[in-house]
């Protein structure tokens, strides 16, 4: 935080002036200009297009701290997608292979290769270790088809009890276990947070569970950053500990990619998968990404004993022979050998456009900025005053900045969530909620400003104040009502008779 000016030069840390001074001193502040920040009027309007009634004073930006759910749109996505449409419109099928003087992406036959270099820098991989394809859950299934090969001795999967539902019981992991005719009661091993309120999972607890099931576990599948608590797991320590006990290790990086620096190759991770619609800003449901370590992906002879089997498709087969239709699968070396279909070009175009914004900086510089933004959010939340009453919320994300990404999860007192959300919505402060009591607040490293954080905290403070007043008023009414009932008297609603 050394680059931040001392508070007395620019007002107190809790002033707007101070937040603005942090923005002026921020070397990455220009990146915000790359994004479309919805205005308050945009958020409130019931149409996507502006109408004549939009007033000038409604051009004020909303306070968007929801990049953990859906990242905002980079301005250049529109230009890239328009160009794609023009190529399709003017070239038809030739768009697959014709190099154009004004192209923004490779011809569609090679478009899947364009993201590899910029993406590999974000996840810390060799470019051949990443592929852009399909969707996150589909990729987890494809990777488990390769890396979850249960035997009589090793068949368990360790995962967290509070995993995102798509990965969890009933869905990806459970269905994989059932697919192998195994019992989910026996084969699914859950990590349960000791503290149910904050969902924190200490590394030591994860390592102990690995030890407890070391000889019977085939796979460990964990999130890089936990979606609910925002905890950033110690990926290198957990990976090497499990691998040393013969366990294959995969990571769901939905909330980690573009948020925190990763070194998947150096950490020797077996495989990983992620989406591109959160911190990667490529739009809802955008084509996803996966990583396969080179020690697995470099084996390309399907007849060799060390070849990693896979559910193959023609797009994973060698480009030079792909169109010869020889019905012989010759996998491309690396993660690309897991591709099934020709990728959606419009979708890949959005990912490439978004990656070009990441190319304006580095993931390390973004992390530095993110630590400051989230630290500032935490400081402001902790310094709010509550007129003598206790704070009506608790930050459940780890305090240690090394154990979290951009997101802070805020656990509200019982009954406060709905009124708080109502007020935030009224004021166009966009966050997301996990009922019954948590809001997740994520200053995105690429586009949120210190002023966004400051504005959010003002709105949140007022929202909590209102919600507390509202719930204590209704609480008092209930106390009066129940004391009347306890005395056996008649209340104005006739409740005692009903009782
Ligand atoms: C941690 C995690 N895993 C899996 C998913 C499911 O992703 P998809 O719908 O893209 O398959 C999500 C979605 O938000 C997620 O947050």
UniProtKB/TrEMBL annotation:
<keyword id="KW-0663">Pyridoxal phosphate</keyword>
<dbReference type="GO" id="GO:0097053">
    <property type="term" value="P:L-kynurenine catabolic process"/>
</dbReference>
<protein>
    <recommendedName>
        <fullName>Kynureninase</fullName>
        <ecNumber>3.7.1.3</ecNumber>
    </recommendedName>
</protein>
<comment type="function">
    <text>Catalyzes the cleavage of L-kynurenine (L-Kyn) and L-3-hydroxykynurenine (L-3OHKyn) into anthranilic acid (AA) and 3-hydroxyanthranilic acid (3-OHAA), respectively.</text>
</comment>
<comment type="pathway">
    <text>Amino-acid degradation; L-kynurenine degradation; L-alanine and anthranilate from L-kynurenine: step 1/1.</text>
</comment>
<feature type="binding site">
    <location>
        <position position="277"/>
    </location>
    <ligand>
        <name>pyridoxal 5'-phosphate</name>
    </ligand>
</feature>
<feature type="binding site">
    <location>
        <position position="314"/>
    </location>
    <ligand>
        <name>pyridoxal 5'-phosphate</name>
    </ligand>
</feature>
<dbReference type="InterPro" id="IPR015421">
    <property type="entry name" value="PyrdxlP-dep_Trfase_major"/>
</dbReference>
<comment type="subunit">
    <text>Homodimer.</text>
</comment>
<dbReference type="InterPro" id="IPR015422">
    <property type="entry name" value="PyrdxlP-dep_Trfase_small"/>
</dbReference>
<dbReference type="GO" id="GO:0043420">
    <property type="term" value="P:anthranilate metabolic process"/>
</dbReference>
<feature type="modified residue" description="N6-(pyridoxal phosphate)lysine">
    <location>
        <position position="278"/>
    </location>
</feature>
<dbReference type="GO" id="GO:0019805">
    <property type="term" value="P:quinolinate biosynthetic process"/>
</dbReference>
<feature type="binding site">
    <location>
        <begin position="164"/>
        <end position="167"/>
    </location>
    <ligand>
        <name>pyridoxal 5'-phosphate</name>
    </ligand>
</feature>
<dbReference type="Pfam" id="PF00266">
    <property type="entry name" value="Aminotran_5"/>
</dbReference>
<feature type="binding site">
    <location>
        <position position="136"/>
    </location>
    <ligand>
        <name>pyridoxal 5'-phosphate</name>
    </ligand>
</feature>
<feature type="binding site">
    <location>
        <position position="252"/>
    </location>
    <ligand>
        <name>pyridoxal 5'-phosphate</name>
    </ligand>
</feature>
<dbReference type="GO" id="GO:0030170">
    <property type="term" value="F:pyridoxal phosphate binding"/>
</dbReference>
<dbReference type="InterPro" id="IPR015424">
    <property type="entry name" value="PyrdxlP-dep_Trfase"/>
</dbReference>
<dbReference type="GO" id="GO:0030429">
    <property type="term" value="F:kynureninase activity"/>
</dbReference>
<keyword id="KW-0378">Hydrolase</keyword>
<keyword id="KW-0963">Cytoplasm</keyword>
<dbReference type="InterPro" id="IPR010111">
    <property type="entry name" value="Kynureninase"/>
</dbReference>
<dbReference type="Pfam" id="PF22580">
    <property type="entry name" value="KYNU_C"/>
</dbReference>
<feature type="binding site">
    <location>
        <position position="255"/>
    </location>
    <ligand>
        <name>pyridoxal 5'-phosphate</name>
    </ligand>
</feature>
<dbReference type="GO" id="GO:0034354">
    <property type="term" value="P:'de novo' NAD+ biosynthetic process from L-tryptophan"/>
</dbReference>
<dbReference type="InterPro" id="IPR000192">
    <property type="entry name" value="Aminotrans_V_dom"/>
</dbReference>
<keyword id="KW-0662">Pyridine nucleotide biosynthesis</keyword>
<feature type="domain" description="Aminotransferase class V">
    <location>
        <begin position="120"/>
        <end position="303"/>
    </location>
</feature>
<feature type="binding site">
    <location>
        <position position="342"/>
    </location>
    <ligand>
        <name>pyridoxal 5'-phosphate</name>
    </ligand>
</feature>
<comment type="pathway">
    <text>Cofactor biosynthesis; NAD(+) biosynthesis; quinolinate from L-kynurenine: step 2/3.</text>
</comment>
<dbReference type="GO" id="GO:0005737">
    <property type="term" value="C:cytoplasm"/>
</dbReference>
<dbReference type="GO" id="GO:0019441">
    <property type="term" value="P:L-tryptophan catabolic process to kynurenine"/>
</dbReference>
<feature type="region of interest" description="Disordered">
    <location>
        <begin position="1"/>
        <end position="25"/>
    </location>
</feature>
<feature type="binding site">
    <location>
        <position position="137"/>
    </location>
    <ligand>
        <name>pyridoxal 5'-phosphate</name>
    </ligand>
</feature>
<comment type="similarity">
    <text>Belongs to the kynureninase family.</text>
</comment>
<feature type="compositionally biased region" description="Polar residues">
    <location>
        <begin position="9"/>
        <end position="23"/>
    </location>
</feature>
